[in-house]
Amino acid sequence: MRLPPLLLTRTLFTRPTIHLRRMSSAAAAFGLKEASLIKTQAFIAGQWVDAKSRETISVINPATLEELGTVPEMGLAETKEAIDAAEKALPEWSKTTAKQRHDVLMKFFKLMQEHNDDLSRLITLENGKTLTEAQGENAYSASFLEWFAEEAVRTYGTHIPSPFPNVRNVTIKQPVGVVSILTPWNFPSAMITRKLGAALAAGCTTVIKPPPETPFSCLALVELARRAGVPDGVINVVTTLKNVGEVGKEMCESKIVKKVSFTGSTAVAKLLATMSASTLKKVSIEAGGNAPFIVFDDANIDEAVAGAIICKFRTSGQTCVCANRIYVHSSVYAEFASRLAEKVAAFKIGNGMDKETTHGPLIHTRAVKKVQEHVDDAVALGAQVLLGGKSVPDSSFFNPTILTDVPAEARINREETFGPLAALTKFETEEEVIKLANDTEVGLAGYFFSRDIGRVWRVAEKLEVGMVGCNTGLISQAVIPFGGIKESGLGKEGGPGIEEYLNTKLIVFGGL
């Protein structure tokens, strides 16, 4: 462990006996091959630290409702320390060459691959998704590091021809500075690397607030980043639950912080954007979705059903880009509903660690309650339950559900469900379904299935979303610009997302 002189006298990390006992207990709960990846402390200026108050947050396995372990309940003081540490580390890290940052990120990427089993297990235990899905997330998460390592060495400037003979115009790219990163629980690893990879590649330093439901994946990634050669202070992590208001406020309003990157609900996104506006800092936001999924009369029904399965039920419906409203042409409605129900009926819900499990629990019982409310509301308005419709008592599980004849005024058509609930509605014309699909305040993703090339172009262009899946239910990749329009957010992540962490500086040379 590297101990900067400034931190040698701190008392936050001077309890080795307690730390070892905590590690032993955590190792038993997680069952990792390498117990050193289990971190139960926050990370500031290169040190694993407890909260000044000694308070902790209990992290629950949603499949068993048992405690996995605890992390510190940090507050305003620790957040300021983390921001200060990031500021102190910025001059040196921002001066590293793009090739140096590329090499560190590639080492980080390879470490994630080497520790795939342990990292995947962490995701499953704290998030609940199946181990197969967790392995997929780890690969997806690592791919952002590889992508942004390669982007680091391609942050080109430009030469702009001047109208004056003795003047030369040049632009260069420079890191924005200290970045605040706030992430959600549904992809506890990938939502970290999608932001962190871009920030590190650009030469920025960071303060991360992971979700209290799934902090261990983030902390394990930080440990691997440290091993990969990321210097002290470049990455800092503040864990919090009850103090999230003051922590988030400081991360957005601090004059030291020059950019905020957030993924989460639209309501919280608006609040954080308002706070960030106090200093006019750069903001990247990926907020809520309400994705339409359209099946036209000329669609390949087998492909459409397969697309709906992966799009709607992946991670038990807990993704921001999952189908929330499924519109099916009346001529193929019965066939699609029947084939979908046949596939969904074969699902096996259970602990994500069990090989037979196809779909894990929801993140907590509050999520279960919301799905049930959406089902009950739709049924009260005339929808029919084709499959499922009820939660598993005294658990975080909700039976995969299909509703038919869902009316337009149902809550599910206005709110993001975030659960294993497929709501089917008939339509008759292309014009009608486009109007239904766009009748929402958000616009993150949309999907449709059709074999008519003219319709493919028309519908893709008319859907008011930032991302469209044509004849596919799976669009996420590290190489694409990920983001929405309307109230689904600002900016893009992945793909060209390194630009969100760079400033363009103009240099004009005169007297030549």
From TrEMBL:
Residues 48-506 form the Aldehyde dehydrogenase domain. One of its GO terms (cellular component) is cytoplasm. GO terms for biological process: gamma-aminobutyric acid catabolic process. InterPro entries: Ald_DH/histidinol_DH (IPR016161), Ald_DH_C (IPR016163), Ald_DH_CS_CYS (IPR016160), Ald_DH_CS_GLU (IPR029510), Ald_DH_N (IPR016162), Aldehyde_DH_dom (IPR015590), Aldehyde_DH_Superfamily (IPR050740), Succ_semiAld_DH (IPR010102). GO terms for molecular function: succinate-semialdehyde dehydrogenase (NAD+) activity. Keywords: Oxidoreductase. Belongs to the aldehyde dehydrogenase family. PANTHER family: SUCCINATE-SEMIALDEHYDE DEHYDROGENASE, MITOCHONDRIAL. This is Succinate-semialdehyde dehydrogenase. It comes from Roridomyces roridus. The lineage of its organism: Eukaryota, Fungi, Dikarya, Basidiomycota, Agaricomycotina.
